[in-house]
Amino acid sequence: MVRSMTQTRSEYPEPRDRGTSRLLQLPMVGSFLTLCVAHAVSILWLFALPRYQREPFAFRLCCDPWTWYTSKLVVKPRIRVIGRELLPKSWKGYLFVSNHESLVDILLLTKEIRRAFLMKKSVLMSPMGWGTYLSGSVAFDRSSKQERARALRETLEMVKRSMSVVAFPEGTYGHEDGQLRKPHLQLVRQAHEQGIPVVPLGHAGCRRAVDGQTLPLRANTEIALVVRPPVQPDDFEDAEQFATACWDEVKAAVTCARSEIAPGWPYRKSP
Fold first, then answer.
1. CA distances (Å), 83 to each of 10, 94, 104, 227, in order?
2. Could you tell me which residues come within 8 angstroms of residue 126 by beta carbon, excluding any fewer than 6 positions away?
3. What is the pLDDT of residues 106-116, one digit of tens each?
4. What is the pTM of this model?
């Protein structure tokens, strides 16, 4: 879907051409981090609840408030969602796969998709790391083969028993020119083997808010998120065909999302 108004927009410039890019003020940083720490401490009692039972409840107490005050106080994104009606109603039973552009992806998908993540172990040290873990996210050390295998097993178990999970098959942020990285699709293949549908997602604009995970942060950035229909395992004879089809849907969603925002940096090449 391409809006005609997109064709008349001026091209989004390189960050160095935006001398007035909004840097976070130190008092705002201090206040925000204080709020995050206070929130993290207030939810510690949730660790007493059993895993695979607490996740939807914990999400409402941990992630929903975090996305609200982060959006209102710091990032203030202008988000447009295409295909929201395709999002599954159930908390569990689906694997979501998405492209990866920026630290802001976490805010976007937590706010709009409202599910857990397959994430790096270092995220547990962030202000809301405990909250994401309590809400069903699975953390692992990417440098360990054993850890990666354990994380795949735990992710699919979480999906089946309590909370759907969002995964980034690229493993890290996409290329600076806008091309997606070669995906790691083992988790998607295993989803096929276990009969778990995959919901492809594609978004654009997060890298304009924060380029990867480094400042400056640019508030009020236009972001588009596209949801594609769930891909059903029964429609494919083998796991490889299923995984390829799922990633093709992600790429199509990314292309659509980019058509919904102003052209220009960093999207110099197609996904």
1. 26, 16, 20, 5
2. none
3. 999 999 999 99
4. 0.91
